[in-house]
Design goal:
The complex is a heterodimer of chains A (365) and B (1038). Chain A is an alpha+beta fold. Helix content of chain A is 31%, strand content 16%. In chain A, α2 runs antiparallel to α11. Chain A is extended and about 85 Å long. With 1038 residues, chain B is of the alpha+beta class. In chain B, the strands form 6 sheets. In chain B, strands 13-32-31-30-14-26-29-28-27 form a 9-stranded mixed sheet, sandwiched between helices. In chain B, a hairpin with a 5-residue loop joins β20 and β21. The relative contact order of chain B is 0.08. Classes of the chains: A alpha+beta (365), B alpha+beta (1038). Chain A: Keywords: Cell membrane, Cytoplasmic vesicle, Disulfide bond, Glycoprotein, Golgi apparatus, Lipid transport, Membrane, Transmembrane, Transmembrane helix, Transport. Chain A: This is Cell cycle control protein. Chain A: Its main location: membrane.
């Protein structure tokens, strides 16, 4: 690269200019940069500097780890599988007799018992297994500008939505595989109080989607009030029972800004995932959100998973400052902290035993 | 850049030139010149093509040119018109036959036939003296006319530029093999994924579940075609593992890094007002890998600043007594009567004067015209008239420079003769004018010059004196003169010559011969005939020369001192200390070269010298080849088999217990060795093995081509060591081009070497810093850069590969497209570039102080497979950690305190954040030299990453189809768990590195410098000892 430019210069009959750009008869500048003498900090990692670091890391990480572990352990979590693969399961019939065209919903009821009361706010998740929401074909099968309320995209969904872009030439809104496969089981929770009455537990359906998605990323075409008109000329996704503008009665939770829909549209990272379904708010300070006792879960079974050997489950969980129950962080922190501390001790011993020999090597240059 | 080039092209191509066509002058663009056009060129113009000089405006049928832009020699060279030309160019008709274009600037053979009406056409021979080269400039001549013989790409200048081959450094070769490994990884990754994809899809319900149907087009595609496209998609997905951006960074690093050499003020030489020159930036790191140094002697180890020291006439020694005690320059030479007395006491006056006349006549020195030589010489003459021989002949400085010659020896001899009272006044149309002691001007007609060539190693002139005697004066190396003179004269002088040679002087013998008119006419005709020959002219000339230069009588010998370069010994010692083997390749004779080697401490007093020269070969009285075989075996036994296994060069500094060996070979023996009838490869390998166990090797009496042969032989020997050649003259060009790294010294022998070198430095002493400091640092920088690039791309793409196992092998990227493209371009490129330009893991002073540190990186030490595997494993470890750390965290994706869950893009962004921070901090940990630039770039690119992520996720980008990252980064940072996992993963990824650094410390390369400091007192003792040794064995003053 340099050589060629040099040649070119000479061939032109000009005086060769030194490769560094210094012109002949010119003394190089005596600047710190050009002489590679910029003032520099020259850290040297030695046992002396690293040892305290190991101890400090150990001392910080172990308490954090213990804190995380305890926090995670204090989180109450209850999980119930309602796929219905097993013949003894109440949902077995629903799962077996599933057909896309059935108009009558299949309902199954699962009783369960909470051994411990859930004191604070309870978050209700549905979980799917072996469901590849992160499959490339699936992930890209959406039209974000359509979901953002763009009229043009509403009528002309992107090609990425294929084969869920149009239904008999009529554009589908919302288009794409993700929207089409939206989770549509209805889950209701009943508390069986000790005298046998079924009390429906009120489930909050807002606050389950990201604020940024709710407010900006998802928008209805036109105004929120007259969605039927706004979605005129579009078709509902093939697998849906009702069009998008009938997802909810609340106009602030309808159409594209329906929170259940938004939650579903955020594709999961792994084939086994959970998504927030409802929130059970705490009534008052005195009673736990979910007291100890018997409950039933009433499932309107619409969502087939048997064909791909998937599983469906419902998770009831409280939440801490670090999120849901996950012992990993706590264990990891404790382990790393202990390893660091142990290494610190080992290094200290090495340093002391052979220190005299190494000391001479620690003199900085 | 390109347009600039084009403009420059146009300037050259459309340069207007005067063409004489059909009897009239027309103006043509230079690109339209055809062979055979007659051009007219004015003063200070550059010749547009190679021309045969037909007519000059000067009366003496000559013109002067300077070839400064061709070979850097700024002296004016005389070129002659074709002899006996018609004055009227316009009516001239003729044909020129010449050889095919060849790159040698100094060779040309041709023939001009002139057609005349009613006459037989005349034939003139054409030689290089008639050829004006493209690129040279006309000087001191009003205008010339010439006929174009070679144009365009056939000109000698153009041919010379083509020959330059691209040199590739060892680092690049390592890069290529590493690349191959990564290519294999890439291929196997793609293959594994494709295979697993189809295995996975064969399970029921996985290929096309109801929620994720294929398009009709997908379904219709042929299975094998689908497999192939899947394979290609995986290749595209993982292609980032091949660090394409590394090539850009490496180029940038090399280009920018080479500036530091040119900028170094330590390389600036106030004498020539120049610093170092970098002709190529591709080989910076090779400077840190040199194992063999091939150095020229004259002008490289020695100054090539010749000084006439003494002479020997007819067996008597004449010596200058310099009262000033200073050796440089002639200003101290105020004692002229001394030698004169000697002269009168010892040899006969006739012999003396003959000798001095010979010195004055037998040369090709020019007197510079503009120096006001008339005045200067007049003044000098006046002085001498006044003061006689005892008067202080103060030579004005302008006079000192007035002699110009291609070889400084000649100037020294002419100057020497001047000191004794014979002054060469210059040429006056084939007459040489010499002022003798009595201030009379003697005129000699110069009949022939038998030019110097390295094969004959002598040159002669044939002159006719004022009284009509025809004489031949010849000077040359003793070995080439002694066989051609009467033997009884030889013995008297041989003693002096040999003594002078051992003292490190360059000796020349002077002989003469009187030619009778008959002899001369025969010589004249045979010379003419040989010069006219179109084929094998060289050989024919050589034959004639050898015939003519025979039966001479020896007059005397001269001794010229060539002093050592500044700090030559220290430099050589440092290079040897750094583990390099220094070979001296010289055309000089063995004794002289040997003494230079001793003076440079390449040989010590206790070094056992193994000689393989013509002398030792002829000792046994047997056939040379047998003797050589015997000697080689003997030396091999001594130096290789009996020597302890440790490398001789390495142990030298520490233990004097080991016997050092030095090897001496001369050109004749070498050619015997290389061209031996039997078993060449066996001899060669023996020779190489011996040489590899010797601390230094001296090759004397080398022809330029042999120098290159030696370099080539070593270069291609086992282990492919990196070679470096350093030289200053045109005779070193071949070896400079042959070696891996060629270094030119901006010496006195023109600019040929500088032009062909990769790096040019003003002085030999600059080698030390160039190799030990710059080379070492460049190597460490680029090696680290290469390893780091492979590592950072591996741990970048490994999580993406692992993700395929969790997304149904669907080629789903883990990271957003913006991150994929920006990773190498913006987030991680600047810190490593800054590192690779500024890093000084050991400061320059320490590197210079302890040459032994150079050995730590010898043999491509930082790019060995072991280290490469270490880096790769580090990348794999970190990649696994990033992916599975986050995978475990995502076993419950509800990571926010409001219970909301994260999706796949959050997953990728967390991995990516950990990745960017880890690789940048890994570099920060490796940085030993934190200037403000490093701080700025490292922390700056991390800050930029954070800023960019916020920005990229902060806006609904109208041009994007999918707003994947909208608020992903911000939401991610709102989760405490994510913060905790990021910290944890960064720490755990860097932990083993920290641990290794601490544990490795006592054995690591960086500690060598410390160990080195302890026995430093010991080193200096050895150093002093060797110093005294050299002064003992060689007293220069005596």
């Amino acid at each position: 690269m340099m050589a060629s430019s040099y040649n070119a210069k000479e061939e032109d009959g000009h005086v060769a200019v030194a490769g560094g750009g210094t012109i002949k008869n010119k003394k190089p500048d005596n600047t710190a940069f050009k002489q590679q003498r910029l003032p520099a900090w020259q850290p040297i990692l030695t046992a002396g500097t690293v040892l305290p670091a190991f101890f400090v890391i150990g001392l910080i990480f172990i308490p954090i780890g213990i804190g995380l572990y305890v926090t995670s352990n204090n989180i109450k979590e209850f999980e119930i599988d309602y796929t219905g693969t097993d013949i003894s399961s109440p949902c077995f019939n629903c799962s077996q007799s599933f057909s896309w065209n059935s108009t009558r919903p299949c309902i199954c009821v699962l009783p369960f018992t909470l051994e411990q009361p859930f004191e604070s706010k309870v978050y209700m998740y549905y979980g799917l297994s072996n469901f590849y929401q992160n499959h490339r074909r699936y992930v890209k099968s959406r039209d974000d500008s359509q979901l953002n309320g763009d009229i043009n995209s509403l009528k002309n969904p992107t090609k990425e939505c294929e084969p869920y872009a149009r239904n008999e030439k009529v554009p589908i809104a919302p288009c794409g595989a993700i929207a089409n496969s939206m989770f549509n089981d209805t889950l209701d929770l009943y508390y069986i109080d000790p005298n046998g009455t079924r009390i429906q537990i009120p489930l909050t359906k807002t606050g389950i989607a990201w604020q940024s998605d709710m407010n900006v990323k998802f928008r209805n075409p036109g105004s929120n009030t007259n969605l039927t008109a706004a979605f005129q000329g579009t078709s509902k996704p093939i697998n849906w029972h009702k069009p998008v503008y009938e997802l909810d009665t609340n106009p602030q939770n309808n159409g594209f800004i329906n929170e259940d829909f938004i939650v579903w549209m955020r594709t999961a990272a792994l084939p086994t995932f959970r998504k927030l379904y409802r929130i059970i708010d705490k009534k008052n300070h005195m009673t736990p959100t979910l007291p100890r006792g018997n409950y039933t879960l009433e499932v309107t079974y619409n969502y087939p998973v048997r064909s791909f050997e998937g599983k469906k489950r419902v998770i009831l969980s409280t939440i801490s400052w670090m999120g849901g129950k996950n012992p990993f962080l706590g264990i990891a922190y404790i382990t790393v902290g202990s390893v660091c501390f142990f290494l610190g001790v080992v290094l200290l011993i090495i340093h002391h035993k052979y220190g005299s020999r190494n000391n001479s090597a620690d003199i900085p240059n | 850049m390109r347009t600039g080039c084009h403009k420059a092209d146009n300037e050259v191509n459309q340069y207007p030139v005067m063409v004489l066509e059909d009897g009239c002058r027309t103006c043509k663009e230079s690109q339209k010149i055809k062979v055979g056009d007659v051009l007219e060129v004015g003063e200070d113009e550059t010749f547009p093509c190679d021309l045969i000089l037909l007519k000059s405006s000067r009366e003496d049928e000559t013109c002067f040119v300077t070839t400064a832009s061709l070979d850097g020699e700024s002296n004016h060279k005389t070129h002659y018109t074709v002899p006996d030309m018609e004055t009227d160019i316009l009516s001239l008709g003729g044909t020129i036959e010449c050889e095919q274009p060849q790159p040698d600037l100094y060779k040309f053979v041709g023939r001009l036939s002139i057609y005349k009406e009613h006459q037989e056409h005349a034939v003139r021979s054409l030689g290089p003296e008639n050829l004006l080269l493209k690129g040279a400039t006309l000087k001191n001549t009003e205008k010339i006319c010439g006929v174009a013989v070679y144009t365009g790409m056939e000109t000698k200048m153009a041919l010379n530029y083509q020959g330059k081959s691209q040199k590739r450094s060892a680092v690049e070769k390592s890069i290529n093999s590493f690349l191959l490994v990564y290519l294999c990884i890439l291929l196997s990754k793609a293959l594994v994924c494709t295979a697993l994809k189809y295995v996975w899809q064969s399970q029921p319900g996985q290929d096309e579940p109801w929620y994720n149907e294929k398009t009709q087009k997908d379904k219709d595609t042929n299975l094998y075609l689908k497999m192939f496209t899947d394979f290609l998609s995986f290749m595209v997905l993982f292609n980032f593992i091949i660090p394409v951006s590394m090539y850009v960074t490496v180029e940038m690093q090399k280009f920018l890094g080479s500036f530091f050499i040119a900028w170094d003020k330590d390389f600036f030489d106030p004498e020539i007002q120049e610093g170092a020159l970098v002709n190529t930036s591709d080989l910076n790191e090779e400077l840190g890998q040199v194992e063999y140094v091939f150095t020229d002697k004259t002008g490289t180890l020695t100054q090539n600043n010749m000084e006439f020291i003494e002479c020997c006439i007819d067996g008597f020694q004449y010596k200058y007594r310099d009262s000033g005690g200073e050796l440089d320059g002639f200003s101290a030479m105020d004692v002229i009567d001394g030698p004169v007395n000697h002269l009168q006491q010892k040899a006969g006056l006739v012999k003396e004067e003959l000798f001095l006349r010979a010195l004055c006549l037998c040369h090709t020195v020019q007197v510079k015209e503009w120096a006001g030589q008339e005045d200067g010489l007049g003044g000098l003459a006046g002085d001498q008239v006044d003061g006689g021989y005892s008067g202080p002949a103060e030579v004005p400085p302008a006079e000192r420079q007035a002699f110009i010659a291609s070889s400084p020896d000649e100037v020294a001899l002419v100057m020497g003769a001047m000191k004794y009272g014979f002054t060469f006044l210059g040429m006056e149309s084939k007459n040489m004018r010499v002022m003798n002691r009595n201030n009379d001007i003697e005129t000699y007609e110069l009949l022939h010059v038998l030019n110097f060539d390295p094969v004959r190693r002598r040159m002669s002139v044939i002159v006719r004196s004022g009284i009509g005697e025809t004489m031949l004066f010849c000077k040359g190396a003793d070995s080439s003169i002694f066989p051609r003179v009467r033997q009884e004269e030889v013995d008297r002088i041989r003693l002096h010559v040999e003594r002078n040679a051992t003292e490190g002087y360059r000796t020349l013998c002077v002989a003469y011969k009187l030619l009778s008119p008959e002899e001369y006419s025969q010589v004249d005709s045979s010379l003419q005939e040989a010069r006219l020959a179109l084929h094998d002219r060289e050989e024919k000339l050589l034959k004639v020369y050898n015939q003519v230069e025979d039966g001479m009588s020896l007059i005397g010998a001269t001794a010229v001192e060539d002093r050592l370069q500044e700090e030559a010994a220290e430099t050589m010692e440092a290079l040897q200390g750094a583990g390099m083997k220094v070979w001296v390749l010289t055309g000089d004779k063995m004794e002289t070269a040997k003494s230079t080697c001793y003076a440079c401490r390449l040989f010590q007093r206790d070094t056992e010298l193994l000689e393989l020269t013509v002398r030792t070969l002829e000792d046994g009285g047997r056939k040379r080849e047998e003797r050589m075989h015997e000697l080689l075996l003997d030396y091999h036994k001594r130096a290789v088999k009996d020597a302890p296994p440790a490398k001789a060069g390495v142990t030298r500094m520490w233990s004097s217990a080991n016997q050092d060996y030095g090897f001496i070979i001369d050109g004749a023996s070498l050619s015997l060795l290389l061209n031996s009838s039997t078993d060449t490869s066996h001899y060669k390998s023996l020779f190489l093995q011996i040489c590899q166990n010797c601390t230094s090797v001296l090759c004397c009496r080398m022809a330029p081509l042999q120098k290159a042969q030696i370099v080539k032989m070593v270069k291609n020997s086992k282990g492919c060591p990196i070679t470096l050649s350093i030289g200053d003259g045109a005779n070193d060009v071949s070896m400079i081009l042959e070696a891996h790294v060629g270094i030119g010294i901006k010496g006195k022998e023109g600019r040929q070497a500088v032009r062909n070198s990769d790096y040019a430095i003003p002085k030999l002493k600059h080698m030390k810093k160039l190799l030990l400091a710059h080379g070492h640092l460049y190597y460490v920088r680029i090696a680290h850069l290469v390893q780091y690039f492979f590592y950072k791309n591996l741990c970048f793409i490994l999580p993406q590969f692992l993700y395929q196992f969790f997304c149904g092998y669907s080629q789903q990227p883990l990271y957003d497209a913006a991150y994929l493209t920006m990773y190498n371009i913006c987030f991680t490129s600047m810190p490593i570039l800054a590192y690779s330009l500024l890093e000084q893991h050991i400061s320059m002073e320490i590197l210079l102080e302890h040459p032994i540190l150079y050995r730590d990186i010898a043999k491509n030490g930082m790019l060995r497979w072991g280290l490469f595997i270490y880096w790769t494993l580090l990348g794999v470890y970190q990649g696994l950690l990033f992916f599975f750390g986050v995978r475990l965290l995502f076993s419950n994706p509800a990571l926010q305190d409001n219970g909301q869950v994260f999706g796949n893009w959050s997953y990728g962004t967390i991995v990516f954040t950990v990745l960017v921070f880890t690789v940048t901090l890994k570099l920060a940990m490796d940085t030993r030299h934190w200037t403000w630039i490093n701080h700025f770039v490292i922390w700056g690119s991390l800050a930029f990453y954070v800023f960019f992520s916020f920005f990229w996720g902060g806006i609904i980008w109208p041009f994007l189809r999918a707003q994947r990252l909208y608020f992903v980064f911000a939401t991610m940072l709102s989760s405490v768990a994510v913060w905790l996992v990021i910290f944890l993963l960064i720490l755990v990824s860097l932990l083993p590195e920290v641990l290794l650094l601490v544990l490795r410390k006592p054995r690591g390369p960086y500690s060598r410098q410390m160990k080195q400091q302890l026995p430093s007192s010991g080193t200096s003792t050895i150093f002093m000892l060797s110093q005294t040794a050299s002064t003992h064995s060689f007293s220069w003053s005596d």
